[in-house]
Fold each of these.
Amino acid sequence: MEDPRNIVAPQVIRLRTERGWSQSDFAAACQRAGWDVSRGVIARIEGGVRWVADAELLQLARVLAVPVPELFPMRERHLFARGSRRG
């Protein structure tokens, strides 16, 4: 199996379902927020087959009402910690 095109898919699914939204509901919420996205795009993001741009991460976080780091797997969240630097 190929590597996923994004690492946020599981968290997006979890956050969406916690809100009781279908993929269509979520796409509609994204559209109301100004992001022209279809249910099919949401399905591809959640399936890990669609790459997610940085600006789209901001849109996802805004619509889901979470900070951007919450979209990433727990093992990656330390990268967002205040003052954290790679090197």
Amino acid sequence: MPRLAVIGFPVAHSRSPAMQNAALETLGLAGEWSYRAVEATPAAFEMTVRELASLGYAGVNVTVPHKEAALALADEASDAARAIGAANTLSFSGKRIAADNTDAAGLLASLPGPIPNPRALVLGAGGAARAAIWALAHAEPPPDGNLPFVTQRVTKGREGPGFQVDVWNRTRSRAEAVFEQLGGPASLGGAVVEAPAQSAYGIVVNTTAVGLHGEDPFAELPLDPAAFAAGQVVVDMVYGDRPSALLAAAAAAGATTVDGLEVLVQQGALSLRTWTGLEPPIEAMRAAARA
């Protein structure tokens, strides 16, 4: 029986098992396929992945803090995973491991439109931040010219209609490293910032874990609850049973908000399509993730 899993540390809070098992049931695969959560420390990550592959798993999703390590151990990787430098989806064929990154496309698919302001701020410098930065910088709009952006492409310069991306991280050196690894100003169009002008951005994406354990995002991030702007899009990768404090403040200011559950649904749907070859049931996945 093909099996699937999500690997992280920690991973008990993940909604992926409920979401993916609901999708498998909707697709009529519940009797053949299953999906579970597997916790693995960074030291045990590679061993855990190779063990699951040897046990006949079809693939795994990878979450914090293993996304860069997932790419490093793969035998082959998609253009997106290589360009981003991180993977959230691994597929197994015998002992061979293929890496992909559906975080980028999942973020773009979750965005409402239109977003007329082409400036973006990404908070964080981990695997999710790398995907967000790359996706926004290399996004392509549909033929009508409006967002949401639905596909991505790798470019060698500022050609095309992607966002101009600024990056912030608590440790500036990490933000600088990620910014340069993803192409620097020539590719991203923005800069590493310490005190971003919050209202100047069309979209703000928080990829940090701030708020996951109840922390005050406005004490930890360079954001002011009074400085969000109407019409702005604010994405918070943190998710829970209610909107995060960051999204609540953004919504109160008239911004459009997207929570981590919607991004999770969209990237998970793309992973499921990779493993099964079937069109994912988005509504069933969304309902299960939010149950």
Amino acid sequence: MKDLRELPKFRDGISYIYVERCKIEKDKEAIAIFDKDGKTPIPCASLAMLMVGPGVSITSEAIKNLVNVGCLVVWCGEEGVRFYAQGMGKTRSAKNLLLQAYLATHGDLRLKVVRNMYEMRFKEKVTENSTIQQLRGLEGSRVRKTYETWSKITGIQWKGRNYDFKNWTRSDPVNRALSAANSCLYGLCHAAIVAAGYTAAIGFLHTGQQLSFVYDIADLYKTDITIPLAFKTVKEGTQKIETRIRYTLRDSFKEQGLLKKIIPDIEKVLTVTDKNGQVIKPEKLKVSETFTGFLWDPKQGIISSGKNYSDEMNEKNNKRRK
């Protein structure tokens, strides 16, 4: 396996590529796309997410290359139907996942994480006496105001957030643009979460779904990115909204440097202190950077995975014989 330190940093990569009606094959250590225009090599080691649309054929060797570099593969349909599949990410350490689980399972610490999220959304300090219910109310009001503001700026009528995946065409253009834009944002946040060694399933505000943490992180950016771009895209026309919003988002992600922000923002969200005012860091948890890791023992707790139990038993038997 390639040295993990040789892999490119997530922030330096390409946000995502969307392909449809083509064939994807292995190309040395990368992949290549074959369509009517010929062959297009893709440096998958620096790719955060590959969106596979209708009419795509992909080989198992190409998938293997994508998984080996931690690229998230997303199968998406024209009607918004999506299926996720991902590799192990670009890290083999469990320290970030253990920190995430630790904070999520301790109520007082989880509350601090939630407050961090709201502070990042509001871009101001949240008072400690503010309840979660009050913060949710403020957030709801902020989002509604954002919709109303961009409705006035673009002249696009806003009737509220309403869509149905089972009948995609019944949604109005703005809702379709929002759904397509948020879908791309979710995928990119998912890729960042996996790349950094966290899990998408353990959320703090959202809970009970496989993508709970994805929704938590994506919500940090919606009012600044997907909502404005959805209204702007619809103002320019209602034809091929989903395709146009994807291209617009790709350019926006690059201009705003979103890849450089997501993982540091996740770290900021999960930076909380214990009762003694000490920041809880992954290094304080018992983790291993090796491939074998540690073993759990009911009496001794965490022990080295290199411990030889056969030698231990032989030693005990020898003592008994003596």
